[in-house]
Structure formats: C-alpha cells, structure tokens
Design goal:
Blueprint: E1 5-6, E2 25-26, H1 32-43, H2 48-51, H3 62-69, H4 71-98, H5 104-121, H6 123-126, E3 130-131, E4 137-138, E5 150-155, E6 161-166, E7 172-173, H7 175-179
Antiparallel strand pairs: 1-2, 3-4, 5-6, 6-7
Helix pairs in contact: 1-4, 3-4, 4-5
Length: 180
C-alpha cells in the first residue's frame, strides 16, 4: 500500500520533500527498519545527499531531526559513519596501488577526496588533528600519506636486471647511482 500523502498544493507545503509528478508529497516517518536501512547504506559509503528524497527515504533535514530525537539512531549513525570512513581509507589504498603514470593526476584527486572524507567521518582515526570540547588538541598528530612512486626496469653493465626509481624532479636512483 502507498504511503500516506498530502493533498495540499505544493506552494503551501514546507520545503521538506520533493513534490511528486501528480503534485502530492509523500512523507516518510521514522521506523527502526528504515533507520537500519539508512545506516547500512551510509556504512557502504553512500552519501546522505544521494539517499535523501529518493523513494522511501526521508528528506535531507529529517536525518538531523531524527538524530536529535532518537538516541539509538544517533548512535547507529555515528557507527555507520565510522564504517564508511574505514571503507574510504581502504579505497584510498586501492586507488593508490592501481595508479599508473597515465592516471596519476586523476588518482591524486580521488585519493585526496577519499582522505578528506575519511578524516571528517572519523577524525580520531584518520583526521589530522583531534580537539576536545574546549578546542585543546589531543594526542599526537596523525596523518595518512600516500605517495605514488615511479620505477623502471634497467640492465646493469654486468647484464643483471634491477629496478630503479624515477623521481618527479627527473633524478634516477638505482644500484649504479648508489655506488658513485
């Protein structure tokens, strides 16, 4: 059965939910099942912006009202955000490992965005600085730094194969350079 809808005209409605094609607005009420679905989708990395106002989901602002009104939802939401931060940190490593010289610029952008989101969702684990309620910094600064490095195969004068590193400034380092 369809959700309960309002027959009021769209201009009279609060800006909470997108108006459907027939001019009606569907309101979504809090349930534990819906809260569990939202948290599961958040934990898999989906953003609230993408979920909000889709069929069966509440409007964007309802999330904040529900977090204040339902403490169990606020706790589950916080845990889901931490899980999403772990997922983004793992994805950062995968992007870095799959990077090539052709994709390095685009991958650097993806890595930066994933690191930023991981740091905001779980600042104690992935953030650069953690502050307590009074604004005082807690503990040492922790930072996840991923560097993309380039290597090339080379043959030594004696015929053995080795790998040498090529730096962004053009320097090349390998067994020959280390001896000299």
């Amino acid at each position: 059965m369809a959700k309960r809808t309002s027959t009021r005209r769209p201009q009279e409605l609060p800006a909470k939910k997108t108006v459907e094609a027939d001019g009606r607005v569907t309101y979504v009420h809090y349930t534990r099942k819906l809260a569990k679905t939202i948290c599961a989708r958040l934990a898999t990395g989906e953003t609230w912006f993408r979920m909000a106002n889709t069929p069966g989901m509440p409007c964007y602002t309802s999330l904040y009202a529900w977090r204040q009104k339902y403490p169990e939802f606020a706790e589950a939401y916080a845990q889901a955000k931490e899980m999403a931060a772990d997922l983004r940190a793992d994805r950062t490593l995968e992007v870095a490992e799959a990077a090539t010289s052709a994709t390095a610029s685009a991958d650097r952008l993806r890595i930066g965005a994933l690191q930023w989101h991981a740091g905001k969702a779980a600042p104690k684990r992935y953030g650069t600085r953690v502050r307590d309620e009074d604004g005082v910094e807690e503990g040492p600064e922790r930072r996840l730094i991923i560097e993309v490095r380039r290597f090339a195969k080379a043959t030594a004068p004696d015929g053995t194969l080795y790998t040498r590193e090529i730096f962004p400034d053009g320097r090349i380092e390998g067994p020959e350079e280390a001896k000299g």
